[in-house]
## 1
Amino acid sequence: MKTRLSLQDLVKSKFEDHLFVVVSNREPYVHEWAGDKIKCVIPASGLVTALDPVMISCGGTWIAHGSGSADRDVVDEHDIVQVPPENPRYRLRRVWLTKEEENGYYYGFSNEAIWPLCHVAYTRPSFNQTDWEAYRQVNRKFAEVTAQEIGDRKALVFVQDYQLALLPRYMKERNPDVIVAQFWHIPWPNPEVMRICPWQEEILQGLLSNDLLGFQIRYYSDNFLHTVNACLECMVDWETNEVHRQGMKTTVQAFPISVDFENISSESRQARVTHEMERVRRQFGLTGEIVGLSIDRIDYTKGMPDRLRSIERFFEKYPEYLRRVVFVQVAASSRIHIGSYRRLHAEVDNLIEKINWRYSSGNWKPLVYLRENTSQLTIAALRRMARLCMVSSLHDGMNLVAKEFVASRFDEDGVLIISPFTGAARELTGALIANPYATDQMAETIREAIEMNIKERRTRMRRMRAEVEENNIYKWAEDITSTILKLDSGRSP
Ligand code: F6P
């Protein structure tokens, strides 16, 4: 079993003379003003959930956009803050963006072009020249900051996600000796879909400047290889999953991302979680109802309206469950300046209001909506209270909410319902699979989950816990590190 310590040993023994640098758009800790106080918030991001334990284990520097209102107030003169705040283990270097840069690079090209392009969720991508220029400019800015951090030291730069597709190229242009690896957290579509991006060639060139490029599942890495094969002059070696182009080689492989199983499992056992469960029950007047739980960033890829419609259908078909089952939706917003996200917020609010109006009686209502600022402690309590957890993404690279739920259930109870269009559905063999587009099927699956006996719940949960325990976040990081080592041994010392 891979652990925090085994990863530490591997990195220390093999990369001792290298600086370890993670670069992402989203930062792991955001400082916000709350009245006249500063609070530190952990953003809703699978990338952060996965990478923070890795950085705590390995140390190093994480470079990311400083997006919080108080971020500038807590950094030193080099724009560094040590994190986690309560027990610092690594450096967070903040990159400052102007409103125009954030608008074009983050809201515009990253989230109105690449995000909908890569997710089959039927939201049309829009390609805007000004956004593209901002995307280039900000990727250059991240490369400059990364180069400053590295100086003339040997470094391993680990780039995260689709906001930074051009960064590897800008890094290699400055310093061809630096090892650059990138992990693409979201799906990669087939070549036909990718073709519509007017700048696909430049994006692919950026990604092929990596020594190693990782995807969540084999299907996405295969899609990527087919895309470069169709679009660029290059040689794809289908045996070794390597792309050779202009004297450079990129290895393209799948590394399913995961969570810190041990930590989540042991945190979940703590007495303070048990106390919080009692507090949550009192707050929402839960007196023995079966709890269904969903936790999402409010995003059109997560299938929230589809899930709500299936819950409505469930109560319609099985009214005997009225007053006996309550669904809790925990949600966090991001990207709210984008029209499609604002419309989604309104749609979710309306559906919740409509379903609660239709079915509530006395002080009982079928849906509890916790929008924004739900603490990690409350989330831990809800995970333990839940008989079922529903993940209904229309398309999702992995979905770590599912793995966190499994990791937290040390009592080996609880049913996971998961969409087949998530990476996680391929690994979690004890889950019930339900297509979010098929409202009736999903409603039936809810019933099946609720009526499942304890013996079967245990068997399924045990199986999933073994899967997540074995394939934990340290295994993911070690697999990537070992692959880089193999590549590096073929390079000059
Ligand atoms: O996992 C995909 C991802 O887009 C990450 O890159 C990102 O941090 C997370 O989802 C949340 O999105 P955002 O950072 O845009 O709020």
## 2
Amino acid sequence: MKIRIGYGWDSHAFKPGVPLRIGGLAIEHPEGLAGHSDGDVLLHAITDALLGAVSAGDIGSFFPPGDARWKGADSAIFLNIALEEIQNAGYRIANVDTTLVLAAPKIAPIAGEIRERVASLLDIPPGDVSIKAKTPEGLGLDHVAQAHAVVLLERVEENNDVRVMHAEIDETMSVGADEIDEMLKEMSRGRKSAVKKPAFDTEDFT
Ligand code: MG
């Protein structure tokens, strides 16, 4: 399959005296988001979307909230593991679309900055990242921040070097095309075996 889609959602309650981080950006605000980690609701949703796109479990199965190592952890660590998972599965990000739902602070004035930060963490151009925000009208959730994220992945094509090597071996050696295909499949199987196996036995409180 050449493309895959992933969806992630997360929520965290606001808490006084905690630094606020959204999309890896430190934001001036009287309250932050409570969580076992740094509570970065947006990075958690994107992490889940990436893991979901390659059917690799969720953030809670990789980083159990009962594990003291992740207390106050920078959520960029979680994002990096999810990026490794999609790379190991042979995919890269085509684009990411997100929606934050929160009463305050206002996101529109800093959406560009969040976009730059998220794009930098994902190592993709800012034009491939979208940050939208809404207020939780009628939900009675003014002390909660929610984030939704959708990612589209595209399969990384066999690079030119491998294709040229394939053609050269084909011409100069007595190895048949079938055997070369088998060697390439073997390489691909080796790559897949590097994918970590999630536990699937935890709910996410990260
Ligand atoms: Mg979370």
